[in-house]
Amino acid sequence: MIKLVLMRIFITLLALMFFSSSSNSSEGSFYDFNIKSITGEEIKLSDYKDKVVLLVNTASQCGFTPQYSGLQKIYDRYKNDDFIVLGVPSDDFNQELSNDSDVKKFCEIRYGVNFPMTSIQKIKGDNAHPLYKWIASNVSVIAQPRWNFHKYLISKDGQILNWYSSMTSPTSDGLTKQIEEALYN
After folding, report:
1. Which of 7, 173, 147 is nearest to 64 (CA)?
2. Among 13, 38, 62, 73, which residue is least crowded by beta carbons within 10 Å?
3. 116-165 residue pLDDT tens
4. How many domains does the chain have?
């Protein structure tokens, strides 16, 4: 237990050291982008203006896939308070199903997911979706996705508040506390 606490403290300190303190370093905001939904419609992120968003790159065949349950739990808990979980399936780590309809069916049947999901997207490299390129220009290298279920907390004004590694449970005290601060303060 002590080792786990020390590891969390170490990860938090690393995040504080390497997180870009100026989330406005690159022009624009989260709300400047559109992204295709898992059912093919366009999601205008500007529709989420004045809401707190947890953006998560997901995968259906990953050891962290059970985090879908936690993501759904926090979505259910805070959705009436202007909170959105936005799942972004990605095969960048070779652990996603081959098409959007299979991902949608898997998430709904296996985890009861009803929060918004995008179509399968590239989240890193030269072919990354423009949203993830914007994120990369606003955070340090250590804050960029290194695996599935990497999370970004986006403020009501469309800026990156913080990031959380794949190892951070969506229902962790630290994450839920920061969600509540962003929602209620």
Report:
1. 147
2. 13
3. 999 999 999 999 999 999 999 988 877 888 999 999 999 999 999 999 99
4. 1
